[in-house]
Every structure is written in structure tokens, then in C-alpha cells.
Amino acid sequence: MKSIYSYLFLASLLMLLACGDRDPQPIENNTLFLRNKGADMPIWVKGNRESRKIILYVHGGPGDCAMCYRYYLKGLETETMVAYWDQRVAGASSGKVDESTLRYAQFSEDLGYVVQLLKTQYPGAEVYLLAHSFGVELSWQYLTTGTNQTEIAGLMVVNGMFSFANWLAAVRDWALREAKQQKKTEAETYLLANPVTPENAASIEWEPIYRWMNKLGGNPVSIYKDGKYLLNYSFNSPNTALAQFTHAKAYTYYGNVESRRFEKGPLLKDIRIPVGLFWGVKDGVVPVEVGDATKTLLTNSSVTEVRFSESWHEPFITETEKFNRAVLDFVR
Fold first, then answer.
1. Of 113, 155, 146, which Cα lies nearest the Cα of 303?
2. Which end of the chain has a smaller Cβ tally under 10 Å, C or N?
3. pTM
4. How far apart (Å, rounded) are the C-alpha atoms in residues 137 and 266?
5. Computed over its alpha carbons, how large is the radius of gyration of the chain?
6. pLDDT tens-digit readout, 191-235
7. Cα gap 231→207, rounded to integer Å
8. Is the peptide bond before 208 cis (omega within 30 degrees of 0)?
9. Any idea what DSSP says for residue 247?
């Protein structure tokens, strides 16, 4: 009897060793952590490892989360890996973060380390940036710094800006058009009295312009009206509502000073990697005219444009299937 058990043990051991020699399973489910300048930032890597392509989702906000949008982006994981990174003071990130680090240069450094970490963990894999809103600003900061763009196979821009002055002028123009169409006299009067120019963009009160845009329907979509999303967020997401909705308090300097200085327009001519411009055309938060201006400045890049006619600021929410198809087409 003892010899039979010995034989079965040996056979089982040989089977395990044989399995160990096989190629890794195609489905990736890995959690990485980056610690930098006081921030502990998680990166969840999901999807098809055999693709050797990683879509790094650079979320918006500032102070939003990455994994809570997996609900919409999960369809990408059948063909690629998707890395969901929570930025410093965002989502499920933690640590003791000095507010003085909430600057574009620091976010760019963090992003660079995330890219290096992914390339170390998955040798030979290509990294594509899928950037939304505030994440677009971070991506432009990173790609226009040094030789960083050589690390990236392509950038997908989703309703995000390259210039504060260009952005605010576009928001004001969008709101003024809507005020006239909707016959909102109070809004029209205020917006006519407060034009945005390159000279006054750094000092003009931007918040009243932004509030009028919202009141006029600039982004009426709310993910919190979707019951299935809320269940997923509550029970299948590493983020906590308490953390996420208190993050914004840390960004006073960003809103008042740092963002007003943001200007990458003259540097976009140096971008040579492929760029996809994915835009919800109804958006008032970052109007489609910002996308048009972005394309004009990308004189040395191969540019793909996809418009989402039924979408506002988050086309991956309102036209999910079309959005995911467009992303996969770009990465292919």
C-alpha cells in the first residue's frame, strides 16, 4: 500500500512540474503597489496577458478613482491587459501625502514610475495611455517631459485639455451658445460681460463660468443613477466613498494656481506617437472645440478621431460598447 501512495505522490509531483513549464494563463489578475513621495498607490492589472499590450487608465478628477470605472472598461480586458492606477490622493491610494506634492511635475514623475513598474513586471509589453479629463493633463505633462514619449506606444485622449486658457475660453463659448439657445438671459448677460482671453485667463473668476456651463446642461450624466453601477461600486470596488469624496479638499492650490498655469500647446508639435482623440460631442466640461484645437497642434503625430454623438464628458459611460471598440481598434 505504501508503494502505491508513493507512486501517486510521484505522479502528482510530475504533473505539477509539467504544469509549471506551460505558458502562463492568459487571464491576468495582479495587484502592484508604487510608493513615492509619501503616496502608496495601487495598480490593478487585469485582462489578457498574451496580448503583450497594456492599456494604462489615467483617471480624471483630480481625486477620482480608477477601478470604479472598470465597470465600463472591463470589455477591454478580453484582448488586452488594463492597468487601473489610483493617483496620489485618489481612489484607494493612501500614505501621508504633503499637499505641496499635488503638482503636475509630481504626477508626471509618478506616472513614469508606474510605466517602469509595468514594463518590469511584463517585459516586452507595449504601454498605451488611456487618459480622461484631468488624466489628459497629466499625460501631456509626462509626454512633453524629456524622452518620456519613447516609453509609450500611443495615447488616447478622452475629453481633456492641453491648455487652461484654451479650455476656459471654450467652456465660456459653449455656455454662451447654450444660454442664447435656451433663452437664459441672466446667464447670457454674465457670460457676455466676462470674455476669456489669453491675457486674463490666469486671473478671471473661472468658477462662475463653470457653474453656468453645468446649469445649462454641460454634463447631465450621473453614474450614481445607475443601480447596477452602485452595487458594483459598493461591493466590487476597492475604493471607499468616504475617501473619494474628501479628496477634493486637498486640491485648493491646484484649482487656484497650478491649473491656471497649465499650457502645453506649443509642445504638442513634438509629440510623435500615435494619438487618438475620443470625444463626447455634447460635452460642456471640455467642449469638442478643445479636441479640434488639439488635433491642429499635433502636426507630427498620427491622429485618429472618434466622435460620440450621444455623449457628454464620459463617453465610456453613455456609449460603452462603441467606446471600447474604438479603444481596441486603436491599440490593434
1. 155
2. N
3. 0.89
4. 14
5. 22
6. 999 999 999 998 999 999 999 999 999 999 988 788 888 888 777
7. 33
8. no
9. G
Cell 509539467 sits on residue: 18
Residue with cell 487601473: 84
Tens digit of each residue's pLDDT (9 = 90 or more) over 284-315: 999 999 999 999 999 999 999 999 999 999 99
Distance CA 134, CA 160 (A): 6
Q: Any long-range contacts for 319-328 (C-beta under 8 Å, 24+ apart)?
A: 319/280, 320/72, 320/75, 321/75, 323/72, 323/278, 324/73, 324/75, 324/76, 326/276, 326/278, 327/55, 327/76, 327/130, 327/156, 327/276, 327/278, 328/76, 328/79, 328/80
Single-letter amino acid, residue 30: N
For residue 14, CA distances in Å to 1, 7, 8, 288 come to: 20, 11, 10, 60
d(CA 265, CA 162): 6
Q: How far apart are CA 244 and CA 332, in angstroms?
A: 34
Cα of 284 vs its chain's centroid, Å: 18
Q: What superfamily in CATH does domain 26-163+221-331 come from?
A: Alpha/Beta hydrolase fold, catalytic domain (3.40.50.1820)
Please, are residues 101 and 39 in contact by the beta-carbon 8 Å criterion? yes
SS3 content of the chain, % helix, strand, coil (to 5): 50, 20, 30
- 129 to 85, 135, 153: CA distances (angstroms): 11, 9, 8
Q: Find all residues with CB under 8 Å of 86, minimum gap 6, and list them.
A: 41, 42, 43, 59, 65, 66, 67, 92, 93, 239
Which residue type sits at 11?
Answer: A
Q: What DSSP designation does 305 have? A: E
**Domain definitions of the chain by residue range:** 26-163+221-331
